[in-house]
Amino acid sequence: MFKQKYVIIICCVFCFSAYAQDISPSVFAKLNGFRNKSFKENGFYDIQLGFGLFSDFWIAPKLAFKHNNGALNDASVFTETTEEQLRTNYTGNLVSVGTKIRLTKPEDVWLFFWPEYSFGNFKYTSSYFKTENNPARLQLQESVNYKNQQDYFDFALGLEGYLDFDQRFLISAYLVYTTLDLRQDFDQLSFMQTGQRPIPEKNSSLGIGVSFEYHFSKK
Q1: CATH (domain of 85)
Q2: Number of domains observed in the structure of the chain
């Protein structure tokens, strides 16, 4: 059922592209950053590389490879003689399908909405450190891993415009909301040598992003 859902969504997106008025293949790159205080540097990010086969001005279906990365804040416990610490991070490799929908008429800059569905594999790693003979030095005691599949939606709303007179290069900036939620997967990370576990909060967050796109044919 999980894979069948992917196939249906991909087919719907690219069948819908058959209604496009112009065949205008393109490639694009995206970078999204999300704010969340339970992660190091108060956030996490994803990057994408993808392409579009068809588009008119109003609708442009997209298919992309996405890489996710983030690390939870270190969890430390202190006693009179020791310190214990957990260091936890994750990576994800996914496929994303979506459609960029322009909301205003072509001008120098226009408004767009970009819903996107992503699915793929995540890997989680957590390491348990403890001070032993040297109280100033944390030493690795145990490391655990967990893998699982995830699927979720992103919704972006922003502004876009051409960088050149030939209308080949596009740049966009936008706000993006992700529904990604990894709490249940982080809960699977347990250790033999300690009862500590990562304490994540919900990932669903608001972020900002930028996108660069190149069209192989003139508009």
Answers
A1: 2.40.160
A2: 1
Sequence-distant (≥ 6) Cβ neighbours of residue 140 within 8 angstroms = 127, 128, 129
Per-residue pLDDT of the chain (219 residues; tens, 9 = 90+): 555 555 555 555 555 544 545 567 899 999 999 998 888 888 999 999 999 877 777 888 999 999 999 999 998 888 777 888 999 999 999 999 999 999 988 778 999 999 999 999 999 999 999 987 776 788 899 999 999 999 999 999 999 998 888 778 999 999 999 999 999 999 999 999 888 888 777 778 999 999 999 988 765
pTM (2 decimals)?
A: 0.84
Q: Which of 179, 114, 116, 180 is nearest to 148 (CA)?
A: 180
Amino acid identity of 77?
V
The contacts found for 159-164 with CB under 8 angstroms, 24 or more apart, are 159/109, 159/110, 159/111, 159/112, 160/102, 160/109, 160/110, 160/111, 160/112, 160/211, 161/108, 161/109, 161/110
Distance from chain centroid for Cα 6: 17
3-state secondary structure (DSSP) of residue 81: coil
- Give me the count of residues in the chain: 219
Structure tokens, 177: 């909301």
Tell me which residue range forms the domain holding 200. 2-215
